[in-house]
Amino acid sequence: MVLHITTYKEWEKAQQEGEYTAPSLKSEGFIHCSTIKQAVDTANIFFRGQNGLALLCIDENQLESICKYEPPAAGGQQNPSVGNLFPHIYGPINVSAVVKVVDFPTNENGFFVLPEEVLNL
């Protein structure tokens, strides 16, 4: 299971089109994702202060595009406790591979916390 952080607006668009793409697919050649252990750190670094976010829970076995685990694209250092290889999806994400979509709000202090529904996947 890999996770991708997006907005509900983008997810609704993907459902209409049958596949999800992100700007990074065009600019970098892949869609950034995280493992369950990496998602909170990723959100707190790159999405701090944003509302209306969703976690796309993606079953790698149902993907039509290739998923590779690679070092962070920006060459950043990742906390060793959560691993330093990130899932990158090289192509659109077919909506049938998204097995669950979960609200991803911040807590009262403005930080992201992994929703319990994701922990039970």
Structure, explained:
The protein is α+β, with helices and mostly antiparallel strands and 121 residues long. The chain has one domain (2-119): Protein of unknown function DUF952 (ADP-ribosylation fold, Alpha-Beta Barrel), CATH 3.20.170.20. 22% of the residues lie in helices and 28% in strands. The chain contains four helices and eight strands. It has helices at 8-17, 23-27, 39-46, 116-119; strands spanning 2-7, 19-20, 31-32, 53-58, 66-70, 86-90, 93-94, 98-103. The strands form three sheets. A three-stranded antiparallel sheet has the order 1-4-8. Strands 3-6-5 form a three-stranded antiparallel sheet.
Provide a short characterization of the protein structure.
The chain contains 4 helices and 8 strands; from the N terminus they run E-H-E-H-E-H-E-E-E-E-E-H. By secondary structure, it is an alpha+beta fold.
Layout of secondary structure:
Elements: E1 2-7, H1 8-17, E2 19-20, H2 23-27, E3 31-32, H3 39-46, E4 53-58, E5 66-70, E6 86-90, E7 93-94, E8 98-103, H4 116-119
Antiparallel strand pairs: 1-4, 2-7, 3-6, 4-8, 5-6
Feature tags:
121 residues; 3-stranded antiparallel sheet; 8 strands; single chain; ADP-ribosylation fold; alpha+beta
Shape call: globular
Number of E-state strands:
8
CATH topology: ADP-ribosylation fold
In CATH, what is the class?
A: Alpha Beta
